[in-house]
Design goal:
The chain has nine helices and no strands. The protein is an all-alpha fold. It starts with 13 loop residues before the first helix and ends with a helix.
Length: about 190
């Protein structure tokens, strides 16, 4: 019976990655992005900085991974109703856990002044959510539910922009009333009026 040769160094602890992400989330809540450090994360977990850097090349990559770990990419709704599909897209932004909101707010607030963090957060966290509206509206055009002349890109950015503004600029969370107000009073009228 042959066995794989053991690599040099300490064996990889699969659970340490989760511990590091959890510690990063805690520090993002407690300290904010600007003040949390790789040293503090390593110290909190009893790990070495080398352990961190083997998994994430930078503080930005670690913060984005920690925030992204709290969010599951939403599924594309197809209820048979454009309104219900748009409401489902908006409801994907609702968070039931204040911890998620606090970590996300920390990353979004810091991303306003940090283009590298902003781009990484956009790709890892925002893109799966903002793409929902674009796909639902595109499908509605294909199905003949709204005119082909609409500006899909602009209309699909409305709700994500409002959600970002509430979270990053105002420090608020998106609530059900926001979803209903934007879908019923802004998006649906715009889709039918064009």
């Amino acid at each position: 019976m042959s066995s794989s040769p053991r690599l040099p160094g300490r064996p990889v602890d699969a659970g340490i990655g989760e511990d590091l992400l959890r510690a990063t989330q805690d520090l993002l809540i407690e300290e904010g992005f600007e003040r949390f450090t790789m040293d503090a994360v390593a110290k909190r977990c009893g790990a070495s900085k080398a352990t961190l850097y083997r998994r994430w090349p930078s503080k930005t990559a670690l913060a984005v991974a920690a925030a992204a770990a709290l969010f599951s990419p939403p599924e594309l709704p197809d209820t048979g109703s454009l309104r219900e599909d748009l409401l489902a897209c908006g409801r994907a932004y609702l968070q039931q856990d204040s911890r998620n909101d606090q970590v996300l707010a920390s990353v979004l607030i810091a991303s306003r002044h940090n283009p590298i963090l902003r781009d990484a957060a956009q790709a890892a966290i925002a893109a799966p959510y903002s793409g929902l509206f674009q796909r639902v509206i595109t499908r509605a055009v294909t199905r003949g539910l709204v005119p082909q002349s609409i500006d899909i890109d602009t209309l699909s950015e409305i709700f994500p922009a409002i959600a970002y503004h509430r979270t990053a600029a105002l420090g608020l969370v998106v609530v059900e009333a926001d979803v209903l107000r934007v879908i019923d009073n802004v998006l649906l009228p715009a889709l039918k009026a064009l």
